């Protein structure tokens, strides 16, 4: 089974750029410690300081699905409506 690639792109609401940066940053350490996490990197656009992207690689889709139920992701989900204008999620595999 190929590793799962996930790319999550998030756009902050106007004036909430630093709040989203902090919220996203709080996910990095706990997620990297999770079973099955191969890479988990947070990026911020040079052109748009309110645009963030996570690039992730997981051993398998079921392990990523467990990640999505983790306490830190659940807490993130409860706060996202306050700071996120839009988001997009890609899941696939490296060819």
From TrEMBL:
The keyword Zinc-finger does not apply. Keywords: Monooxygenase, Oxidoreductase. InterPro entries: ABM_dom, AI-2_Isomerase_LsrG, Dimeric_a/b-barrel. Residues 4-94 form the ABM domain. This is Antibiotic biosynthesis monooxygenase. PANTHER family: ABM DOMAIN-CONTAINING PROTEIN, QUINOL MONOOXYGENASE YGIN-RELATED. It comes from the Bacteria. It comes from Lichenibacterium minor. GO terms for molecular function: monooxygenase activity. The keyword Oxidoreductase applies.
